[in-house]
Amino acid sequence: MKTPTKRKSSVKVGALFEEYCSESSVHGVRFFVGNQRGACVKLIWVSVFILSLAGCGMMIQQAYNKWDRTPVIVTLSEVPTPVWDMDFPAITICPEIKVLNTKYNFTHEFEALQSQWYQGKGTTNRTITITDESIGKMKAIMHHCSGIYKYEGNFMFNFNHVPEPNLVDFLKDVALDRRGVFTMCSSTSDARCNDYMQVTLTNEGICYSFNMISQAEMFHPDVLQDEYQYLEPWDTDGATVERGELLKVAVMVKFSAVSYLRNAANACPSFSAQRGRGYRVLIHEPTVYPDLSKRNIRLSLSQTLTVALKPNIMMTSPELSKYSAQKRQCYFGHEHPLRFFRRYNQDNCELECLTNYTLARCGCVHFSMPRTNGTRVCRFEEEHCPYDARGALFIRKQNRTGTDDYLLRCDCLPACSSVRFDLQITQDSHTEEREVRTRFETLEELQARLQM
Ligand SMILES: *[C@@H]1O[C@H](CO)[C@@H](O)[C@H](O)[C@H]1NC(C)=O
Ligand SMILES: *[C@@H]1O[C@H](CO)[C@@H](O)[C@H](O)[C@H]1NC(C)=O
Ligand SMILES: *[C@@H]1O[C@H](CO)[C@@H](O)[C@H](O)[C@H]1NC(C)=O
Ligand SMILES: *[C@@H]1O[C@H](CO)[C@@H](O)[C@H](O)[C@H]1NC(C)=O
Ligand SMILES: *[C@@H]1O[C@H](CO)[C@@H](O)[C@H](O)[C@H]1NC(C)=O
């Protein structure tokens, strides 16, 4: 009973197929049927048809894969951005000289301690006349000197029991007078330069930043320790200047950074020659916390630095927010909240990642790293650990194996809207000015001479 109906329906389908093929406007299909054509011809047409379908399929697949891998197309904007619509970048300047001799006679004390220690070598009974307070201060200053703490036989490690003073307060106290560092700052806007200056803690120690956002805008205050500030307004003595806006780019700023050499002590005596008496300069976005170990411009004392900036603005259209961050290779501000920083950007994320890594590896962090109440700052004898951690993380970054879950967890993609500055640097020396300046101890002395 069943077979005839089945045959009947298959005949029906066959007729339908034949009708479709002969009437279809799809090219080639017409030649699949027809009594006048041989089976061979029909077969060839069918296979040509299937081959072309397969070819189309492959091309579609390729196009899909390409879109899947890189859904984002980078285009150059046709519309130029006027320069006054942009924020002026922040400039962070770190003097390489960390101690002012008049505040703490570091060179003298260090040499005295060193000679007393080595004179008593071999005897059980050394006479050290340097006070514990002074030794503590020395250790605090030597936090700057990777050359010292990496050297394991360093005699300073015999004083590990001596307590260090309150590190950040002490370092700020003995640092070069900020008004001695910047004697002149002029800008083409009418704002006073000093209103834009802040004292910053970086891996280079105490630095000065121009035109950066404030501590309250940079960090989440509820997670941060409240022992010391990472960003402090320049005029701490007077009423704190409340800065409204950041400077715009259409401003030319000129700094004169001058040190009075006679009073300056090199923080890392005899161990490291690489520390000179110049400055390290970093130009960055105002929302980025400066990290000078990644890049900086070194400026020696007798040099003038002229920098032309070419901002590279990357903007991402909001429609891309429906794609995953991995596909578009960037984060919108709210997508990757950081623990310490309010604003997401790649540099802040990397600094936080380094902080997490350092804490996990060493159990303590460098004083310039953001930390909570519960995290302590590494002591002098532990300071090699954050230094090594930085190097280790850098190597792991170069060698991404995919199994390295630490870096994957950090996941520091660039921010979807960010500005990078291409720098064009001209350095030239101005020896006469240095000659004049270094002969006098202070600005007052210099001015007094000029008025005579
Ligand atoms: C540091 O101490 C040495 C030796 O006592 C002294 O000659 C030098 O003048 C002192 N330096 C300062 C700036 O007080
Ligand atoms: C320690 O040194 C002092 C003077 O340098 C000496 O008078 C004393 O005998 C020494 N004590 C010992 C135990 O060596
Ligand atoms: C940190 O500790 C101080 C005192 O020890 C306390 O007043 C402050 O609230 C703590 N801060 C945080 C964020 O826990
Ligand atoms: C890269 O990582 C793998 C696995 O962690 C390790 O075996 C290899 O030695 C590393 N290579 C370098 C150059 O560090
Ligand atoms: C660092 O660690 C904290 C706490 O474990 C975490 O909330 C934060 O996301 C980590 N930061 C990064 C950049 O991985």
UniProtKB/TrEMBL annotation:
Source organism superkingdom: Eukaryota
Annotated TM spans: 40-60
Assigned GO CC terms: plasma membrane
Subcellular location: Membrane
Keywords: Ion channel, Ion transport, Membrane, Sodium, Sodium channel, Sodium transport, Transmembrane, Transmembrane helix, Transport
Predominant cellular place of this UniProt entry's protein: membrane
Membrane topology: Multi-pass membrane protein
Gene Ontology biological process terms, A to Z: sodium ion transmembrane transport
An example molecular function term from Gene Ontology annotations: ligand-gated sodium channel activity
Similarity annotation: Belongs to the amiloride-sensitive sodium channel (TC 1.A.6) family.
Protein name: Amiloride-sensitive sodium channel, other
